[in-house]
Amino acid sequence: MHHFAYRAGVSHSIVLHAEAVDISDLAAAVGTPFYCYSTATLERHYRVFADAFAGMAGTLVCYSVKANANLGVLATLARLGAGMDVVSEGELRRALAVKVAPERIVFSGVGKTRDEMAFALDSGILAFNVESEPELRALSAVAEARGRTARIAFRVNPDIDAKTHHKIATGKAENKFGVPFAEAPSLYALASRLPGIEPSGVHMHIGSQITELAPFRNAFVLLRELVGTLRATGFAIDFVNLGGGLGIPYRSDQPAPPLPADYANLVKEEVGGLGLTLLFEPGRMIAGNAGILVARVLYVKRGASKMFAIVDAAMNDLLRPTLYDAHHEILPVTEPKPGTPMVVTDVAGPVCETGDYLALARPLPELRAGDLISVMTAGAYGAVLASEYNSRLLVPEVLVAGNRYSVTRPRPSYGDMLAKERLPDWL
Ligand SMILES: *Cc1c(COP(=O)(O)O)cnc(C)c1O
Question: For the chain, which domains are there?
Fold first, then answer.
């Protein structure tokens, strides 16, 4: 469910809108390519998720900032009461910049530096998700040196197949994430002896774009067992962090992923009633459907065996198709007239890489130079993964709310791009 739909525009055509904003008007004002986010969709997804746990005492939804770190997006979610899950000092600073209370922020990631730990401790965040013994020892040293206490949850790797793309599975033993399940009890014992460390919770995050409930159930059962073991040994575990990972529909011809309500029922069944605070870290589920990437067709090119639509957005703007073999629906911004012939088309960008494409062999209404297209479901892991590869300007981001819009990250100028670098004094 999202708020991008065809509506009557000026002239007589039917045009894609973000809420009440005409995408072709936006393209004229901002230039292409650009990301466009819908406030109503962000709000809806956050509420659907948070409300699914409404009856349960003690839940905190920590939006995973890495899915979409745009300050306008973060501020929208912060206003709804979202906590945040961050994976770097930069993300923590973004969360603090939009006034998320530090006691609603958790810090994840296998490679936190001592400087990042110090900044997070001084900020007073809720908890660290600790991913290894060396990290634990470093955190203890930093906390002790600053006279602070770090509340921690070990991120436990349950060796579960999340049945998702191999590049976004994180809960298998061979993945770099978390501590081995079997070693968790001894690590909690160690943690309770180290200065500056307060072991308070258990964390699991088994992967992203998970489209079945079974892997979650397997993980939550293990989590419950571990909490039981730890409590029996005398540890005061007061929260579990169930991570993120709930999938979203990228294509209409495949079964829909589980509803948040079904996920919530599973959570209640497996870890409800244990007197634990429940933390969640949804990212994609909140932001994915709330964003599109708008591009303009530069050239239509007839190859020896197929058609290519060369557009002005590329892999540096949206890496998901290249990195994850991801499928994004492509919609022409002007709704095609009924009966428009379909042409099997590769939608590709200007970057000099064979892997630079947004869609392959896609039946699309015949495109022409100058047409606008919208790449759907691009709100998560889209703009955050953008780069200046090929010295292309970083793609701008626009936030829509009703009939208003704001360019929350403007397109830099070429002057801005060059001014970021310095020549060495010998040149
Ligand atoms: C990426 C990540 C998430 C968010 O995952 P989604 O699939 O976007 O919900 C949550 N927790 C951790 C630790 C992550 O690394």
Answer: 4-38+289-419 (2.40.37.10), 108-282 (3.20.20.10)
